[in-house]
Amino acid sequence: MVNGQQGATANPYDSRSSTPDSLDITSAQPGDGEVFDLATEADLGSEVDEVVHVAAGRLPEEVYEKILNPWRAAIRRKLVQTVEWESEVIAAMQARIRTRFLDAYFVYTSTLGTHTFFTIFLPAVFFFGFDDSARGLLLILAAGVYMSSFVKDLVCSPRPFAPPVTRLTMGNHHLEYGFPSTHSTNSVSIALYLHTLLLQLYHSPVLEKGFDTLVHNGTEVVQNTSDSASGAFALPDISAVQHTTMSQTTYYALSGLLLFYMFSIVYGRLYTGMHSFTDCAVGVFLGTFIWGVQVLFGKAFDTWVKTSGWLVPAIVIPTCLLLVHRHPQPVDDCPCFEDAIAFVSVIMGEVVAQWYMVRHGYDDSFFSTAVPGNLHGSWMDAFTRISNLSIKMILGVLIIFAWRIFAKSLFHLILPPTFRFLAQLFTLPHRRFYTPATDYKTVPPEKGLRPIPSVIDLPGMVELEMDEVAASTARRLAHASRRRELKLRNGKSNAEVDLWRSASANGKRDMVAALQEYERKDVPDVVVKHYDADVLTKVFVYCGIGMLAGSGIPVMFEILGWGVKLS
Fold first, then answer.
1. Is the pLDDT of residue 168 over 70?
2. DSSP reduced 3-state for 198
3. What is the value of pTM for the model shown?
């Protein structure tokens, strides 16, 4: 295995060693070399080009001590201590229960707890007329992503150490800090909110067809004959002709499914070695807290948005921009900040759009057209309903992607020269790891849209980390061995990393200067650089997505006569 350089007496799992031992490798092609447990017996003998970087939270401990505020550093020290011993427990658990089936199950189901999944799922809820429920889900998800990202960048706690843990991952979540678990936060808050909706349906009475008219007519008759001494007219017994929206069997089945969903996501973070027990426990608590706040104050917030006039945008827009600006700056280059920007911006766009629609006549009364067809009617009715829903979903998603392409290109063109002009007038805020506009002329084309992976790409996106070295699990299953040609991220040698030690002796200012020098090294093309224009671009792009998904596209469907209300 390839390990970071450590002293002879150092604990191999100690994140406080003087040089980084946390590596992440993306292999370009199969090669020969080391044999992994999950690999099949094959050896093709070709070479491997690999890129390695220091994992979030695994820089030398003195870096965090010097850069973080004392109280942040103190919290981090406690968390690192728990990660150290919990890593041993998780490794022992993995040794007992890991199988190929469970590996695949927990890795792939982890995508159901990501904000990417909910970003695709939530617009459909808006498109099909459940705007109140969709808005509640959106607020919960945004709060979970922002709050967990805020805490992650605040304390900079690493994920469980590999070794002893074997880490299974998909996507770039392993590049983030570990505490708390965003997956656990999202899955618990969403599942609890969906259960709240189920409970409302289960206890909501539904009158039989024509019963509401019967009660109305009967009430009028009683009122018109109130002089009658006989009192012969009486309202019918409601309990005899009503039923609940959801049967008991359906309620318990769906509740069990939500419980299993929560277990799969939360326990899956432990099984895959992505989080410690502490990470998941705090994530569960945070998700429960967010759900409770939404249940208690969600309706009051909706009422405030619909009835408070210009006070709504005057408060919502500055608050959301302040949340973006005040997000903690981490020591490592962690992608948490970009996730937080996206969801705060979506909330800003959706709330402002909702406020505008109510003030200009696009309220609930505007959406009066029912979705054509009926799933319980003839086959033609069912086909009409399914076709309508499918077309709306496809068209709505395409509109959102088209907006994303257009807006991203537009603001990457407009913002950099705007920033350079403003920089001559006053000092612009600058965030670590984000290159200011004065240092570049244009945003490279590769900073545009990334290709969207298809289902057949998923196996190649799965990675396995041992000794905190990641490679494609699919390739390991196909090739038994690898040759590693390791290069530290940003082209830095181990000798350059020793810069931390010499800088730490001269205090925080020299340590910060050393960090800046460390960051200025030339980076390989495969490492994504950040530009200051990306921040505001993401704000505009995702604000527009919130406006389109929550208001613009449903209005278009209503005008076209396709309807958004399910009858």
1. yes
2. helix
3. 0.73
